[in-house]
Write a structure and sequence with these properties.
The structure is a single chain. The protein is of the alpha+beta class and 590 residues long. The chain contains 18 helices and 22 strands. Helix 4 runs antiparallel to helix 6 and helix 4 crosses helix 17. The N and C termini lie far apart (71 Å). The relative contact order is 0.11. The mean pLDDT is 94.
């Protein structure tokens, strides 16, 4: 019988039952070893690794001597048991080896800019420029396959819940909400531009108007943002969804099992939150100093203003004369050493703060400058409020919480990290709810939307008409996991008069609304169903599951930190002819 031109088996397929068979495999030379005249090639393909052997009696010995790492070759040979004591239990093919009878070079390799074998690190631009080699490396290859499996699982779970996947347009209209748009010039309509969607927000709401009931999509989103490690420059993917005739609770009930299920399926047995807590935004800020708390960190901050008011510690007493000012305490279980407290203090100065006041407890009493100033009674009151004991400490932040909250959150994280209070081997998920509908923009001295402008305010139109805008909460929610925001969503404002009123408060007239969101505004006039949904970051979920803090470790062909695609050379210059066709002339900065 004739053999397949390249392979009868993959590199991961051969087992003891194949012993004695003549087979053909193809792949890359992962590692080549010379054991005193006997040559070994570990041949690798997508499916696994196979040890191949040639000794001087092998007809292919001369050919085997020529090959180098990462050459692509075809090997013929006979499967045999590995000799006693040389088996490898970690490898599915580790009981057998292939005695080489023939070898053909399918593609020789130039000298390698980065080694595929082993785990050494290389400069990011080298890795991205030679991404095709980088992707051959085991860890990255595995991460990408995890990503594929996660997306597959998302699709199946969503379909099982009655959602259908719809594709929405990639070329759309520019919308000034959120980040900057990527613009695409139109040749047919000179001087006009399409935009790439920052999210399919308006389209998915229109699908609800159109009566499709349950939509989802693994949607590419494009934002012209400055790159960060946990946010890819340019494009990223979301599990985007929308449902009709639902309240907030229905979205939670639909999505909680999907996300929990993904973390259980791919989390390698690490514990996953079963009943997600619902944490109001304001509570999250005061307890954790952030709206995406890492709940693996047991530290909960507390307000100790009442104890500090009129105390002997002049700095805090003076600050508290201003009614909106507060003093918060950050407990530090086991942090009661002078060395640790001094280290935190100098860290705070490095963050641009004057310092970080502290009390530490030993032999039943508080110690340190703050304790000496406020006296034993107040020190004891703080200890008992925070539930601390000997060997513990606590740190203080003071002033206007709106100003210090971010720093307080960083300090809470720092204490948790440095004292090893964080259980890294788990996934802690929570809903953050009751986001404020509006916020005050200090720079422009006006009220702005604080999140998604299309959210339904709690209390509806009446709240918009009668309440101080800064006290209105929205039916708007995030999913937080281990200190990252994984998803964001809301119940939508489907009443046209309420939509106009909400935009009015943020300084837009009805004319602006019609101009910018004409399609949606029009759709709302024709029997709009109540609807809501959310979008979860696919890249970020995969990043957490793969245990990396960098999105470039779970994406196929990412850009670098300067938003350059160094592999393809994008963005690039275009020809004068292309610009002429588009009626565009460049006006470059000096």
């Amino acid at each position: 019988m004739t053999m397949h031109r390249y392979r009868t088996h993959t590199c991961g397929a051969l087992r003891e039952e194949h012993v004695g068979e003549i087979v053909r495999i193809s792949g890359w030379c992962h590692r080549i070893r010379d054991h005193g005249g006997v040559l070994f090639i570990d041949l690798r393909d997508h499916y696994g690794m196979m040890q191949c052997v040639a000794d001087p009696d092998s007809p292919a010995f001369k050919a085997v001597e020529q090959v180098r790492a990462e050459w692509c070759v075809r090997i013929d040979g006979k499967v045999r048991r590995r000799p006693e004591g040389t088996t490898n239990a970690d490898l599915p093919t580790g009981m057998v080896e292939l005695f080489i009878t023939g070898l053909e070079v399918l593609g020789a390799s130039a000298e390698l800019p980065l080694q595929v074998f082993g785990d050494q690190s290389y400069p990011e631009d080298t890795r991205l420029k030679f991404r095709f080699l980088d992707l051959r490396r085991e860890k990255l290859h595995q991460n990408i396959m995890t990503r594929v499996a996660v997306i597959d699982s998302m699709r199946q779970r969503m379909k099982a819940k009655g959602f259908n996947e719809f594709n929405t347009p990639i070329l759309t209209a520019s919308s000034p909400e959120g980040a900057r748009d990527f613009l695409v010039p139109s040749r047919i309509h000179p001087g006009k531009f399409y935009a790439l969607p920052q999210a399919p927000q308006q389209y998915k709401q229109l699908l609800m108007m159109a009566g499709f009931d349950r939509y989802f999509q693994i949607a590419p989103c494009f934002r012209d943002e400055d790159p960060r490690a946990d946010r890819l420059p340019g494009e990223f993917y979301q599990l985007d969804l929308e449902m009709s005739f639902v309240e907030q609770e229905d979205v939670f009930t639909a999505m909680e099992p999907v996300i929990t299920g993904i973390f259980e399926e791919f989390g390698g047995g690490r514990p996953v939150t079963q009943k997600w807590p619902r944490i109001p935004y304001a509570e999250s800020m005061t307890k954790y100093g952030t709206d995406k708390p890492d709940l693996r960190n047991p530290i909960v901050m507390q307000d100790v203003s009442d104890i500090m008011r009129g105390s002997g510690f002049k700095v805090f007493a003076r600050i508290l004369e201003e009614p909106k000012n507060r003093v918060w305490a950050i407990p530090a279980p086991s942090g009661g050493s002078r060395a640790f407290c001094d280290r935190m203090n100098s860290w705070a100065q490095g963050e641009g703060q004057p310092g970080l006041g502290y009390v530490m407890w030993k032999e039943g009493a508080g110690a340190g400058p703050v304790a000496n100033n406020i006296g034993t009674e107040k020190t004891e009151a703080i200890r008992s409020q925070l539930g601390l004991a000997d060997g513990d400490a606590c740190f203080f932040v003071a002033g206007d919480p709106a100003r210090f909250v971010k720093f307080a959150g960083l300090a809470r994280t720092k204490v948790g990290e440095d004292l090893n209070l964080i259980d890294k081997e788990r996934f802690e998920l929570a809903w953050i709810v009751d986001f404020p509908m509006f916020e005050y923009n200090e720079d422009e001295k006006k009220v702005d939307f604080s999140h998604n402008p299309f959210s339904m305010p709690q209390g509806g139109l009446e709240a918009l008409q009668t309440q101080d805008p800064l006290t209105i909460k929205a039916f708007q929610y995030d999913i937080a996991c281990n200190g990252y925001e994984l998803a964001s969503g809301g119940i939508r404002n489907h009443r046209p008069e309420a939509m106009v009123k909400a935009f009015e408060i943020a300084g837009y007239g009805e004319k602006d609304v019609v101009e910018r969101f004409g399609g949606m505004y029009r759709a709302f006039q024709y029997g709009a169903p109540p609807h809501g949904g959310m979008a979860a970051g696919v890249d970020r979920i995969v990043m957490l599951l793969c245990g990396t803090a960098n999105l470039r470790e779970i994406s196929l062909f990412p850009m670098n930190q300067q938003a350059l695609d160094v592999l393809m050379g994008a963005p690039s210059d275009v020809t004068p002819r292309q610009l002429r066709d588009l009626h565009i002339r460049l006006n470059l900065p000096e």
